[in-house]
Amino acid sequence: MTDHTGTDKAPVSPYAFRIRAVRDLLIERGLITQEELDTARERIDRRTPALGARLIARAWVDPGFRERLLADAHAAAAEVGIPLPRAPRTTVLANTEDTHHLIVCTLCSCYPRALLGRPPDWYKSLAYRSRAVREPRAVLREFGLDLGDRVAVRVVDSTADHRYVVMPLRPSGADGLDEDELAALITRDAMIGAGVPVRTGPGERGCPPHQRGQVPDR
Ligand SMILES: [Co+2]
After folding, report:
1. Could you tell me the pTM of the whole model?
2. Any idea where the domains of the chain sit in the sequence?
């Protein structure tokens, strides 16, 4: 019998303890191997928001690609060598001057993992899942984003079958940047809609036009 506490360091949360116990039993009974678990973990860890950022940055510099990305994210991702499995379906939603998208999963924690990796803890919290729908503007303000009345907020509920990624507006003041530099501006939060890309550093501090002067320093 495997010692479920093993050599793992304390303290261990009840959830972690349960997961380790299940893992040990699955291995013990020959249903899965440690190597298979390691491979799966490596595959998960390879997915990071950098994948989504690459797609968005390409779309910012290439109008044709932008159109294809919005029409069929799977085909567009394949074009640039990013694996995006057919299921769950992923759709990219473009923010405009008039509309800002905010992604949530009200039921659980469905998230575009294929393009953004693991969700942040706050995304899975009951507070975010309920408040994002009831009072999205208040939630966005807490993220440091005051959109003002002219911009509609569209809250999009993810499901097990359909995931969403936000294409933020390209910040002003980012004109001289190449695709990689643009990608570096595109944060995980911006692709959830909980933030916007901000050009910092030398020169003008750029924000999308409708947010200029309204985004407080964080
Ligand atoms: Co869910």
Report:
1. 0.80
2. 14-192
CA 80 to CA 57: how far, in whole Å? 12
> What's the CA-to-centroid distance between 109 and ligand 1, angstroms?
4
Contact in structure between 190 and 196 (CB atoms under 8 Å): yes
pLDDT for residue 208:
45
Task: Let me know if 130 is a catalytic residue.
Answer: no
pLDDT at 4 (0 to 100): 53
Identity (one letter) of the amino acid at 99? Answer: T
Q: How does DSSP classify residue 210?
A: G
Catalytic site includes residue 207: no
Q: What's the whole-number mean pLDDT along residues 84-100?
A: 96
In CATH, what number does 14-192 get?
Answer: 3.90.330.10
Distance in Å, CA 104 to ligand 1 centroid: 8
| DSSP conformational letter for 30 | T
Task: Read off the amino acid at residue 10.
Answer: A
Catalytic pick among 110, 130, 158, 172? 110
pLDDT at 3 over 60: no
Tokens 């690459």, residue located: 54
pLDDT of residue 153: 97
